[in-house]
């Protein structure tokens, strides 16, 4: 697959310099086609049939296997969720923490994770890593870990700075389980989730699938309570709700996922080129370099994820909106003074130049 | 709107006697069109834009108002969920029950409710109503209610028998809050949810919307903890996840709902005729009468919901599959020996005759 072919899969790129996959990815035509075909089938042949349910279950199996392969885990240990936030809620609700417990996170996390940490009732200790050089993050996190720590919950790639957290070192240094939020990693950089206790996946960001879609890896399903059961969680149940759980992490599957979304995410995954990570790395480096050359105060260090953030002296929301009017789509990060560009394997040199030109015109 | 016009909105009815809205409703063409249009917009104009987010938020407001009006409550007190199961999980997780507490339910509930009751950790007391005459259900439920009862959770219309639970009398007799599962009521019979503490709504059954869609009414949002927060739950948040909740029940909104699903459920609601409940009542009575006349052991008493169940002496799954092969779609109710037909305002006399003829050919 050539770069032009890969890029040609996304009609939105014909109109915009789309640099916002960190919020939500561009949609491939094949994904749209899969959704439309499945919805048409529902329209004409109904949703309450054996054939339909069989098709739905087969699509779940297929997608589970693809997502598991993508993050290097057994399909049996992967739950199909609708978002990384939902994955975090499943884990925190299942751990049954109390006010005596502590959980550790960083000050550069999305509310999808920290909201769940807060709601768990445990004391949340926040490591201040956002304004530190990336190589000092590990020490800052370890300082917050203590005998009461029941979970360390943080991102693989921080959504505010784009920095990669040194998870492997963290895992070796900490006895408590690790919940890794993969919102900004899966599909953007190579991921091997098997080493961690919990790992969340977003289908709608770097994998370019329908929203909402996602997954949750659970290393040891027997040790996490099914706090939020769905009809998919059980193989049989009693009138009082007691139930035989599905095998492995399938017991955590929280929801019906539309057939079109299962097929649509599958199509998006199947359509990605095998050079995806190399190209994303390259164009992110280019984007970062061009912003530095243009004189912006870039906070993202070289060689991390595929997000690039830089300080903006004025209202970030106004800047992002003005850029959008010029056809350049990026993200303002509220309350931080930062603007952020997301670079994917589909991003062209011209997209990067449109960003730099657009910024200079503000 | 004539009956023929209303029926003509559902292409699946041209092929099948579709009597399975209790599992999942027929899909109107207008809903398909709304989904396809929204997905095409995502494809061509992207999902990470101000225009798109604004459109999404407006569609949420509009749908929230329509659903609230449908069940007679203030929009401010209605959370947009993805299913009745999710609504039950939000309530049970928020109540913070312990093993000292008791919750009361019936033996004719769906796992979507009882699974959440079980997972709450409270003792679940099960009122045996399934094999009782409908007018003895209230007493059977009240027997289980005691000083430790922290919640009574049950359906408005029981999915196994189609019987309506006398909620108004129950509410007056019980001090504990009432969680009403509206999966088999909203869209099928008139509903006034305002009198109850919690009421769940399914968008994909009798309202004929996309799956998964739904809602949760919360009478007093300040008194239920936000145990499963999402990005929609807050107006601002701290690094440790502490947050200012959204007003009213909006704080319980658990998930992104695709624009096409918001618009699609809206189209389905807007397309329903104002004679929906009268016609559904009439054709359900007809269906019940015809099954009784044909000699079947109908367990559903006259004048209840829009489900009709009857005992089947052989394998129910085989019977339902054989009927499906003959173009008649009903539901077998696993482990009960019951078959179930769902009658909507769109159901014709001919559909009912196809069911009776199909059964006699088994």
Largest sheet of chain A: 7 strands, mixed
CATH-assigned fold name of the largest domain in chain A: Aspartate Aminotransferase, domain 2
Query: What oligomerization state is this entry in?
Result: homodimer
The strand order across the widest sheet of chain A is 2-8-7-6-5-3-4
CATH class of the largest domain in chain A: Alpha Beta
Number of domains of chain A: 2
- Overall outline of chain A: globular
Based on helices, strands and strand pairing, what is the structural class of chain A? alpha/beta
Q: Biggest interface, which chains?
A: A-B, 77 and 77 residues
CATH architecture of the largest domain in chain A: 3-Layer(aba) Sandwich
CATH superfamily of the largest domain in chain A: Type I PLP-dependent aspartate aminotransferase-like (Major domain)
Distance between the termini of chain A: 37 Å
Q: How many strand segments of chain A?
A: 15
Range of helix content of chain A: 25-40%
């Amino acid at each position: 697959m050539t770069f032009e072919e890969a890029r040609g899969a996304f009609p939105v790129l014909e109109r915009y310099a789309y640099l916002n996959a960190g919020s939500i990815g561009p949609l491939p035509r094949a994904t749209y086609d899969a959704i439309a075909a499945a919805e048409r089938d529902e329209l004409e042949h109904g949703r309450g049939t054996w054939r339909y349910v069989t098709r739905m279950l087969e699509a779940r199996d297929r997608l589970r296997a693809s997502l598991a392969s993508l993050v290097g885990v057994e399909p049996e240990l992967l739950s199909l969720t609708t978002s990384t936030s939902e994955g975090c809620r499943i884990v925190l609700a299942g751990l049954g923490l109390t006010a005596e417990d502590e959980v550790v996170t960083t000050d550069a996390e999305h509310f999808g994770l920290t909201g769940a940490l807060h709601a768990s009732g445990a004391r949340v200790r926040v490591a201040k890593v956002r304004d530190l050089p990336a190589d000092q993050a590990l020490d800052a996190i370890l300082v917050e870990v203590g005998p009461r720590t029941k979970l360390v919950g943080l991102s693989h790639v921080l959504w505010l700075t784009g920095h990669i957290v040194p998870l492997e070192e963290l895992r070796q240094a900490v006895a408590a389980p690790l919940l890794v939020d993969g919102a900004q990693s899966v599909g953007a950089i190579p991921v091997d989730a098997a080493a961690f206790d919990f790992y969340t996946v977003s289908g709608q960001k770097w994998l370019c699938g329908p929203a909402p879609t996602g997954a949750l890896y659970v290393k040891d399903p027997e040790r996490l309570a099914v706090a939020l059961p769905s009809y998919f969680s059980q193989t049989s149940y009693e009138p009082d709700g007691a139930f035989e759980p599905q095998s492995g992490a399938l017991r955590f599957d929280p929801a019906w996922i539309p057939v079109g979304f299962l097929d649509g995410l599958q199509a998006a995954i199947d359509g990605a080129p095998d050079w995806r990570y190399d190209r994303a790395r390259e164009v992110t480096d280019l984007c970062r370099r061009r912003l530095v050359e243009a004189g912006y105060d870039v906070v993202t260090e070289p060689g991390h994820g595929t997000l690039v953030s830089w300080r903006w002296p004025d209202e970030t929301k106004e800047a992002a909106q003005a850029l959008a009017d010029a056809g350049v789509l990026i993200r303002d990060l509220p309350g931080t003074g930062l603007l952020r560009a997301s670079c994917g394997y589909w991003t062209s040199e011209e997209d990067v130049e449109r960003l730099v030109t657009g910024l200079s015109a503000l």
